Structure formats: C-alpha cells, structure tokens
C-alpha cells in the first residue's frame, strides 16, 4: 500500500505541535517563585515554602459518629460522649450540609457517621480554644469517600503538619498550613491582604505526644534563625478526646522530616 509522504509529514508535525502544547499546559508557571504579592499597596508578602520534595500533604481529617441535631433552623450540631460541637461546612460541602439539615429537620435528630475537618479557634488574648468541625461527607451516601471510613474508626483523625508550640496555647500543636497549588497562589495574589491572611490562616490543632521521637519546635527569641531547633513535619493518627478537648496521638504514620510539603503562608 502506498503512503502519501506529504500527509505523513503533516501528521508528524501536528503531533509534535500538540506535544509541545501539552507540555506547556502541564508545566506549572512560576513554580519556583518564593514571594507572592497580596496587592500593590500592602507590605504583606505571601510566601511559599522552599521545600517541595514530599509525598505527604498538610492535612486534618477524621471520622465522627454522634447525635446530629438542628439548632436555630439552619445550624447543625453533633454530640459525642455528652459534649456538643458546632458542625459547619466548607465551600465544597455546602450542598451536602443543606441536604443533611433538611433531612434532620424532617426526620428528627439521629446518629450519623461523618467525615469532618476539625476547626480550632484560639483565643489569643487568653490561653484557650474552641473546637468545632466542618462536614466533608456523610457515610453511606454516593458522595462519601469510602476509603476514609475504612481507614479510620469513629473519633480517629489523620493529622499532618508542623509539630510545634505557639505562644497562645499551653499544649503542643500540629500546625496545618495550606498546601501549595497554582490555583490558590493565583487567588491570594488577586485578593487583598486581609482576605489573603484569612484564607491562609493555619489551623493549630492541640495534640498530646504527637511524636515522641522528635521534640516539638519551640521558638527561642534569644537565638538567631539558624540557631533555632529544627521544626519537624509529622503525620500521625490521633484520637479525639471530647472530655479533655484535645487530640491524642495513637500512631505515627511515616517518618518525621524537616522537609515539609510545599505550602503557602
């Protein structure tokens, strides 16, 4: 069978051009940039971490099982071991949250198994904090990510972040920062500095004995930056303790490392 050389050459050229376009799309732009301006007038700079070699991510997610009820028509609460917590939602889970509100409102309060994000609100004027949770998914629904419910028992959480102390909390914490993404970087460049700080606000989660093999980082104001003790990125499985109002590490997941995943701050 005879092959038309002109058509073959054109096809080869088109494939090469397509490959070149694909490479441009798949390569992140400005991924090596370390500074992101919040706006043209603010002195605040939003920085990315310098370390990006890690398969882990900053994360705080777990499973709760408790009595879910509706408060003030649109607000959900979850009661675990006699302690009641506000249940909120994220932008991605807003519709699931509304559907759950309607279901609880029509059928009455009931025991539900949920995957959630913990949200810690610290009172920086005084030592103290409040723990609430944001809905991710409801077990046994089409939207549920079954793996999290298979991996974790009710009350268990995966927590990964910087193992450290902060001035406004007596206990050690795992600091969960925002994972770097091109989309998030563009968002914080676009919004004003006040909004950017809110978006990138770390979640400081009180944890007891997060990793006995390394010490929690504690800043020493009398030392230069290079003389400070190392700050480790840790990943643990933790059990939420309602009666003590904190999380207790029950297993270390992977090795602690000073090479954290790339993040925005």
Mean pLDDT: 82
Q: Measure the end-to-end span.
A: 63 Å
Major beta sheet, specifics?
10 strands, mixed
- Structural class call reads alpha+beta
**Poorly predicted sequence stretches spanning 5 or more consecutive residues:** 1-16, 18-45, 50-54
What gyration radius follows from the Cα positions, in whole Å?
A: 23 Å
Description:
The chain has 265 residues and is of the alpha+beta class. The chain has helices spanning 5-26, 94-107, 146-151, 182-190, 193-199, and strands spanning 35-37, 45-47, 59-71, 75-80, 83-89, 110-122, 129-138, 156-164, 173-176, 178-179, 203-208, 232-241, 246-252, 263-264. Strands 3, 4, 5, 6, 7, 8, 9, 11, 12 and 13 form a 10-stranded mixed beta sheet that branches. Strands 1-2 form a two-stranded antiparallel sheet. Strand 12 and strand 13 form a beta hairpin.
Features of this protein?
alpha+beta; single chain; 265 residues; 5 helices; ten-stranded mixed sheet; 14 strands
